[in-house]
Amino acid sequence: MPELPEVETICRALAPRLEGRRLLEAEFFERRVLEGPPARVAARLRGQTVRTLRRHGKHLLVEFDSGSLLAIHLGMTGHLHWGGEPGPHTRAVLTFDNGRVLYDDPRMFGRLELCEQLPRRIARLGPEPLHIPAAEFVERLHARRGAIKPLLLNQTFLRGLGNIYTDEALFRAGIHPRAIAARLAPDRARKLHRAIRQVLNAAIASGGTTISDYVDTEGQPGGFQFQLQVYGRTGEPCPRCAAPIRRIVIAQRGTHFCPQCQRR
Asked: Is the dihedral of CA 189, 247, 153, 80 positive or negative?
């Protein structure tokens, strides 16, 4: 699933192309990825001008001059392409006065929703990990008694983190994925806060991570997969101590860590 850096990469590429542009036509080819009747949604979108395009966690929010929002979640395999021709997995085409955006989604776990205000399921998400102050992060962390890995994946705690960047941040901070959040000393909690920001910013600078099929709006893969230190490196030597990287399952998610460098 595209995580915060991948969605941010897409947002930064599309925002200068779409902001201030008029939507001429919207076509939807698959009801499973659209909230509402296709013809009605298309009619409501037609003729609207994009005011802003921004990211909210793993969601893209297209705000129009009317005040309405098009909320886009890419799900597991969703892609937004600038230009090009529709293919077998194209589920929607948004045609603007300067070009068009294709929404492709082979597995159709994504969602497009036109709404008048931020949907409740999005509004209830936690703060942005790139914006939350260290003191607030530590306070929120110490209010939770569960293991740190599933907590960081909980979108109501922080929005935008996924499996890849959680594993990488915990490794940088030297924290075991089963460590109890409330028991982390303040200095270790602040170190984790810094590690999260560092990993996310580095991934954004590299255009995201391509493990399977993620590509940007031009069809190009990300580059952060070449900088991963633990994720997907089961059995390989730790870049710090050379101990074999381990993989375990926590909260039904594959979790990668160094048993020597990451302690509880």
From this structure: positive
Convert the pLDDT of each residue in 10-19 to its tens digit. 999 999 999 9
Helix (H, G, I), strand (E, B) or coil at 92: strand
From the candidates 58, 91, 111, 149, give the one annotated as an active-site residue.
Answer: 58
Residue 3 is a catalytic residue: yes
Burial of 235 (0-12, 13-18, 19+ CB in 10 A): exposed
Domain that holds residue 174: 134-257
Question: Any catalytic annotation for residue 218?
Answer: no
Determine whether 253 is an active site residue: yes
Whole-structure pTM value: 0.95
Tens digit of pLDDT for each residue in 166-222? 999 999 999 999 999 999 999 999 999 999 999 999 999 999 999 988 999 999 999
Quick check: is 128 in a domain? no
Q: Are residues 156 and 106 in the same domain?
A: no
Q: Which of 12, 44, 144, 253 is catalytic?
A: 253
Residue whose entry in the numeric block shows the structure tokens 């460590």: 179
